[in-house]
Amino acid sequence: MERLERALFRLEQGFELQFRLGPTLQGKDVQVYTNYPAKGHKFDRLKFHPLDWFYPNGWEDDCDKYCRLDLIVAGSYQYYFSCG
Questions:
Q1: How much is the pTM?
Q2: Which of 26, 47, 65, 69 could cross-link 17 (Cys pair, CB 3.0–4.6 Å)?
Q3: Over its length of 84 residues, how does the chain's per-residue pLDDT go in tens digits?
Q4: Do the strands 30-34 and 16-20 form a parallel or antiparallel pair, or are they unpaired?
């Protein structure tokens, strides 16, 4: 299991950040949350919102689904995931 609580990733504005399931999470009910501001909202460090899953092949299949963020607003943001 990855321990990335203290990891810092530098990403460029205009990039698309994708969250994909690793093999240990496939087949589980996973939800990804971030405090990156939703379009039209102000940044609040303590307010997290869920990201939607995208299914590029059109089927609700874990093998290639992903969540994404279009990085427009510069800053330091967090994410976490829940697995139920």
A1: 0.86
A2: 69
A3: 567 777 788 888 899 999 999 988 998 999 999 999 998 999 999 999 999 999 998 888 888 999 999 999 999 999 999 997
A4: unpaired
Spatial separation of the C-alpha atoms in residues 30 and 80, rounded to whole Å: 10
For residue 71, which of 30, 34, 44, 31 has the smallest C-alpha distance? 34
Find how far residue 14's CA is from the centre of its chain.
16
Contacts of 14 (CB under 8 A, 6+ apart): 71, 72
Task: Name the E strands within the chain.
Answer: 16-20, 30-34, 49-50, 66-70, 79-83
Per domain, the residue ranges of the chain are 15-84
